[in-house]
Amino acid sequence: MSPPRAKVGDTVRITVQGFQNEVFPEPLFTWTRVGGRLLDGSTEREGKELVLERVPAELNGSMYRCTAQNPLGSTDTHTRLIVFENPSMMKNTQNPNNGASQMDMLGLTWAGLVLTVTVELT
Asked: How many Å from the N-terminal Cα to the C-terminal Cα in the chain?
């Protein structure tokens, strides 16, 4: 199964999976964008899921960090977002290099922590 592709204008959900009843106390999850602010302008977001609505092309290549922390310690993982042009949003423009050769890297497995990505087509 190939990873999903995020196109300009899509909604992307990056979700932490794992840690269900495996770690006590349950960790607090914090999301940040490496080298910049999140799409809504904030510096961080808490929760098991990071939602990026109507992703712009400018987010292509952005790296996101998820940090899991509890009183016993902390650890983090990263994932890179690849954003492709959305042909349905383009008007009277053609791009000979439509990004088909670019690699999708929207999921990452790390030490029992899985980040899954759901792309909602708009």
From this structure: 22
